[in-house]
Structures are given as structure tokens and as C-alpha cells.
Amino acid sequence: MLDGLGRPVEPAALYLKELMARDSSPLTPRSYGMDLLRWFRFLWALGIEWDRATREDARDFMLWMKVADKPKRIHWRHRGKAPSKVPPPRSGRPVPGTPNPVTGKPTVGTKYSPATRAHCETVLREFYNFHLDENTGSLLVNPFPLVRGRRLSQLRAQRDGEKKHRNRRTGLYRPTVPQRVPRRIPDEMYTKVFAGLRSHRDRALLAFWVATGARAEELLTVKQGGAVVGEQTVSVIRKGTRDYQDLAATPDAFVWLRLYQESAWKKGVPRGRQHPLWWTLRRPWRPLEYDAARMMFNRANDLLGANWTLHDLRHTATFLMLDDPNMPPVYVQKILGHKYLSTLDIYNRPTRDDVIRAGLAHHARQEKLREETPVPVDEPSYNPDSLSILFGRDAS
């Protein structure tokens, strides 16, 4: 992380070094560094030293993130060009922040999402906690404090020796993050997405993601020796625990994999058990990374006007396994690599499509019930008083 003059920002460098020493994921320092860079740029614009920031500065920063527009990312092909030479964005796409007409998922908006703001608040609070513990700079208090009730309960938990404390990360300026509802890709739409892929490699990747339920990054780091055709398994390194785990896949996935490997090896892609399983399609041969896989999937999405993500493939695999009555949920938990079985509770909630289908089915049942139920018709009859007079009965 560099300042405006190209010099390393020492406080941020120390904190990122601490993260790397904790055996964090390689993506964690990058994610945390983006949040730190956003905060330091805010301080530099106001001429405030990082160790002189107050709670009011933290409050203003969180308010700024709430109302400011995100910076627009320029494609690498157009960097350094004049604004007049940069082509305008493609038309026909949904307005940013509105639901996608195909998937129902909200599109990426122009503002920072609550999840981004919450992540940034947590990172900055931990950043200042680290420097307070190290007694770095002129810090006296953390400008990103916890809610007062949380601070007292956290101190009480530490005093009582409790290792677990619920909601201990709740910050004073942390926004409320709406809980995301996992979405599956319907079978008919999955077939269309699959048909829109351009190569055997992309078809094999999609088949493995839906068959194994592995995270995108987990599958992309598989070695060629990790795909065992005889056992129909693929070995991945789980996120967090870094454990090796064999995941079962479908025969179709291995068929597409074999087609991809045969065509790739003929072109000169490196071959060997310790070499990566997935490579770029063009020279120079490089291991396939997450951003390239994401763009591949986005191109297939554009053909349908959808905005599904690679993680939606994992949700699709989870729904397929949970829909199987002979598949115990505890096995699904192990396949997904979740620590707790309760993580699967989010899949028990009805999705948008389920609610719509249930509502339409209700109206159809009501319409069918109205059609089958005969309408009572008043039949003609004699007046009882007239019949009594006619037959000489007592009218009373």
C-alpha cells in the first residue's frame, strides 16, 4: 500500500504483515488493504494524521461511504486514453441497483453496499486495535469503537474466561447488513448457460462446480493429479482449514474434463500430476485464475441478460443435494466444508421463485375449486300456505 508519492504506508504495512503471519488467505491482505487505502485517502484529503483521527472523523467517513458513489473502474484496454475515446457502456442493461429481469437478483449499484461498509468498519476497528496493543503512534482510543453494551459484555466475557461471545464484533458505526437469500439457477436456465459456453474447459468447470459444490477458488487450484477418474473424485484444498478433501463428481463432468485435456495437451499445455488442472486457452500458458473464470461465466450470462455469479453454482449444488430425500444434511455440510450444520438453515427459507410458484398454485387451486363446486340453483316450488288451504289443513 503506497501513498500519493509512491512511498509505503508504514502503519498499514505493519498490520498487513501481521495478517500474513496469522496464516490468512492470500486474498485477505488485498481485501483489507483496499479498506485501509479508502480510509487513508479520506484522511489525506482532510489533512489528518492516521493516529490523530477521532470518533467524529470515523463517523464522517462512514457517512461519506453511505452517500458517495463508487469510483468507476476503467477497462485495462482503455486506461490512459482520453475520455472521448473510451466507448460508452453497452445499452440494454438494467439500471444499477435494480433487480435483474431474468434472475431477480439486484444488480451492482453505484453506491457502496451495506456489506462493503460493514467490512470496512470491521477492518478499520481491528487495525486500530492492533496499533493500540502495539502502542504505535499517538493513539489513545480507537476511533471505531464497539457499541457500549457490547464493550461491557466483551470485557465481562474476557474476565470470566469465556472463549465465545456472541456479536462481539458489532461496531458503533457498523451498518445493518441484509441477509442474503441463496439463489439457485433453474434447470432450464442452467442448460442455456451451459450451451452458451465456448470451450470444453468452460463446460467441464461448470459441470464440476455444480456437481461438487466446491467454491470457485477451491476448484481452480486443483492439480491434475487431484482429478481421479476411477473414483470419480476431485481433491480440493478447503478454504479456512486448508485441508485436502475428496469431493464426488458426476461422470458427465469427467467426460468434459477429458475432452478439454485432450485438446489442451495437443496444443502444448503442461502435463503432469503436479501441474494445475485448469489453464488459459491461449499462449502463453498460465494457470486459470478467478477473475478470468468470472469473466468467462459473465460472457455466458450476457447472452441471457442474467447476473448469476460463480457462487450461485455452489448454491445450486446445495439445493440439488438438499432436495434429495436420501441425502442426509450432515453429509451436505461436510461436502460444502461448513463448520456448523446450522449454516444450512438459510437454504430452508423459500426463495423468490418458490414464493411465486406457491402463490400461482394457490390461485390455480382456488379456480379449480370454484369450477368443481356446483352453484346452487333455486328450484320452483309451491307456497306452503297455499298447499295447506288447498288440502284443508290448519294454516297455523
TrEMBL record:
Residues 85-99 have a biased composition (Pro residues). Residues 75-113, 367-396 are annotated as: Disordered. This is Tyrosine-type recombinase/integrase. Residues 180-360 form the Tyr recombinase domain. It holds the Pfam family Phage_int_SAM_1. It comes from Streptomyces lonegramiae. PANTHER family: PHAGE INTEGRASE-RELATED, TYROSINE RECOMBINASE XERC. The keyword DNA-binding applies. PROSITE patterns: TYR_RECOMBINASE. InterPro entries: DNA_brk_join_enz, Integrase-like_cat_sf, Integrase_catalytic, Integrase_recombinase_N, Integrase_SAM-like_N, Tyrosine_recombinase_XerCD.
